[in-house]
Amino acid sequence: MGVERSRGSQRVRWDRERRGGGGGLFGEEEICFCVEACILGLNCSWNVLILNGLQRGMAMSLSAADLPTIYNLIANSLSQDVALRKPAEDALSQSESRPGFCSCLMEIIMSKDLASQTDIRLMASVYFKNNINRYWRSRRDSTGISNEEKIYLRQKLLSHMREENYQISLQLSVLISKIARIDYPKEWPELFSILAQMLQSADILTSYRIFLVLYRTLKELSTKRLTSDQKNFAEISSLLFEFCWHLWQKDVQMILPAFGTLTQRFSSNASVDHHEDLYLICERWLLCLKVVRQLVVSGFQSDAKTVQEVRPVKEVCPVLLTAIQSFLPYYSSLKELHPKFWDFTKRACTKILKVLVTVQKSHPYSFGDKCVLPPVVDFCLNRIISPEPEITTFEQFLIHCMVMVKTVLECKEYKNITGRAINENGVTKEQVKKTISGVVGDMLKSLMPVERVVLLCNILIRRYFVLTASDLDEWHQDPESFHHEQDMVQWTEKLRPCAEALFIVLFENYTQLLCPVVVSILHEAMNGCPPSETAITPGMLLKDAAYGAARYVSYELSSHLNFKDWFNGALSHELMNDHPNMCIIHRKIALILGLWVTEITAVYVFGLKGVLVIVLICHEQNIVLCDIVSKIKDDIKKTVCCALIKLLQGKDLAVRLAACRSLSFLVEYSNSGQDYADVLSACLGLCFKLLQEVQELDSKVQLLHLISVLIENVNEILPLANELVDFFQKMWEESSGESLLQIQLLIALRNFVVELGYQSLICYGMLLPILQSGIDVHSPDELNLLEDSVLLWEATVANAPTMAPQLLGLFPCLVDIMERSFDHLEEAVRIIESYIILGGTDFLNMHGSGLAKLLDVIVGNVNDRGLKPTLPVIEILLQCFPREAPQLIGSTLQKLIIICLSGGDDRDPSKTDIKAYSAAILARVLVINTDYLAHLSSEQSLLLALQQAGVAVDDNVLLSLVNAWLEMMDNATDIQRKAYGLALAIILTLRLPQVLDILDQILSACTTVMLGGVRDLNDEESSCDDAVSPGSHRKSIVPNKDFRKRQVLASDPIKQLSLVTVVRENLQICANLHGETSFNVAVSRMHPAAFAQLQQALKIV
Fold this sequence. Notes:
Elements: H1 2-21, H2 36-40, H3 44-56, H4 67-77, H5 82-95, H6 101-110, H7 118-135, H8 147-159, H9 166-183, H10 191-200, H11 204-221, H12 227-262, H13 272-298, H14 303-306, H15 311-327, H16 330-337, H17 339-362, H18 364-367, H19 373-385, H20 395-409, H21 429-447, H22 450-464, H23 469-477, H24 479-488, H25 495-509, H26 511-528, H27 538-552, H28 554-557, H29 563-575, H30 583-599, H31 603-621, H32 625-648, H33 653-668, H34 677-693, H35 697-713, H36 721-734, H37 739-756, H38 764-774, H39 782-798, H40 805-808, H41 811-820, H42 825-861, H43 864-880, H44 885-888, H45 890-901, H46 909-928, H47 930-937, H48 940-948, H49 957-968, H50 974-987, H51 994-997, H52 999-1012, H53 1019-1022, H54 1041-1050, H55 1053-1056, H56 1059-1074, H57 1076-1084, H58 1088-1098
């Protein structure tokens, strides 16, 4: 009976609500339906029936009669039973694009009878929000949401502000903000006026929900950057600011006395309802603060651009500072009595400071007013330097005090502006900025006199840099995690990193003042804790802090602290102390060595003036400065390297990982790997050992980077090759599924292959399976690994002495890669070149069709930038296979003909170069295979392609190419001009009457080439020696790719043929073909001077 009454009650309730709602989407139709299924749930077969019904009626709108169906689908979508959940989710997905779906969801969310069924209402609100994202904007592929339904939904949303459940209210606020982003102000101009009106008479809960909507909506609208959108936001700010700001101040006046009452012992028995109301007011106050911040920050254009005062900044900021000062005393007093209000106090103080920082960044000039900046900065400095005892543990508050000071110190608007304004007749913005920055600069000088700056520097190092007992405990429990946390944690999240960030900015602003201070602290710490000290005393922790400070400002300190003396006098002695407690100092020394040795050049030996003198001397004598610096530091680098390797052998993981990083810096920035050849074996062995001990991915990546750097920078890798092969094999197997680790492995493998050079065959058993998995476009990790795998492939074929069968079999993968995208085009064409040169006839026979397809895809779809590296590969193919290649790549050659004959901007150098190169390739084809080019140029498919490309050809295509060769003569390289000349000479032998019409032009062009001469090497061949793989310059000459490429270029027919001989012979053939009379008439059209030059050229043997 109870169930029956419940069913009937729900039916009557929904019927009454909808009939009395008026103006709704469903109109006045009666909403009566059976809710047994809603209460008892639907089985799987009924779900399927629903799904089928919805699919049949996709074009129809949902109505009130569909409410129980939607309700049950949502209920079943929450089921743990997949048999119920999956059909329900499918049905909802099918119905979400139907008109009325959002209205059904809105009814479920708002139904009072379903208030207790929070999960269903929450899921309905999620579906509602997602549907707004997908369908609120008009879409061509869906009927979406009609304008009438949109009006209805907007009205219903604003009428449902007093939602009891927070999660649902949050979803609805986000939902409203999404709609507002699209509809405000054109379709929903009354939104903010209605919300403001509702705030006037709302109770606490309703006003809290309204502010939640306001905050989310303002946040959404503030991201719109169009000028019109910013103007709209300014209007919103003028509408809401005064009311919100006054309400915020009113709430403060209500909250603070209530907190005073809460701190009294007898108030702990106050009613729970009273506490709940007070807490809701507190939360509303925080939301109101966020709204005020948004209105001030986004409601006004930044005064850094306008140089106009933003009045609310001066009104708001002093009151915010007063509020912080009022709340702070309750931080300690509420902690034990009322934890919930204590937590609010923490959030309130930090949030206000965050707001002040945000306002300063947005409106620095207004914030620089004397009533704002001085009291705020002074307050923060006092909390940092002399915090009250009760807030020393309030780390988040101290962090944001430091953030505030740091933000002001590094604000570029407060720096002195130099230079003179061009327009001196009136006051310019730059003059106003200069005036304001000068005033703010004077304020900062009074706020931070020398004594206070020095005191702040001391406090940061002596108090905030020092490791705490908690830090030491974390280190002891998990050294590896401790090491990475120091690097990865955001500086605004922890107190010590934040203090370090503030110290660096402070030091940059007051370098000359603070250099002696830091050096003094450093000496004091070293004297107070000698190298033999092993107990973890305050002196040792201060030394660690002082070393940390020196590490962060190593460059600036270099003129005040001689690194060599420091290392030999203190650091090296401390490294010899192997007591376990010394790991604190050892880790910091390891980090120091990495920065000091790599960043300090000749400065610490000569000083800044000395460096300038050296630079001038180097410029006059053509000496590289880094070579001098390298020799200067050679004596210390080797010692430092050995010290870091010793630390790498220690027991503490944090120290060893710090040493690993510094070794990477040291080797990477060295000019010669010879310095480390004798220690490489030991260093690599230590890296292998450490890799077996660490657990975290970051540690493994860091170690692999060191191994990669070592491989890249040493002279002899071959003795260690077998050990490295085993290592890479094992690491690849263990790194399955770890893409970041595998990327680092691929980088190291590439360096390994390059260093091995032509001896890389010894690692193919390990290398090629890894390479094959990396270049497989169907691999699950293709997105992460493909780029580095292609680079490894390029290095492998470039350093291969011969084309191994396994390597030859990988070529089809390149076709798959390029068919997907041209992201790796430059690497791909270099790989193709290697296959052509090394693979020879075997490659052409096995993969000729794939190669032709690949070149056709590239030439037909890339722009000039992509064609530039591709054309030389086509040329190499023709040089290696002069008889076979033209027929193989006929389609590609047709596209080159279209490129040559197409118009374009002749002033564009890149287009001109591409046309010249394409013309040279076609000229080469005519020289080496005349019959084929003549056949290709007469094919119907080419004529059709030319027509589709809009290229008009007056005579036959071959004669059009002749015109192109003549036109391109001045834009071509020497070797390209010779190819043109040879091709033009070949044209003389064709039985075409039009040849006589242009005979004078052909002979003039050939004369120019003959008299101009051709260099023995073209640019590409002469640079070939420089393109030898980095590892091969140390080996004897072997028949690898580069050696064979030089052979191919040297035997190029274009070079071997004598243009003089060809022209002389073909002139005779031309005369015989066309008759002496016609031939002489054509020759007589030449200019006498040009004819004389021709005679001179033809006498050259």
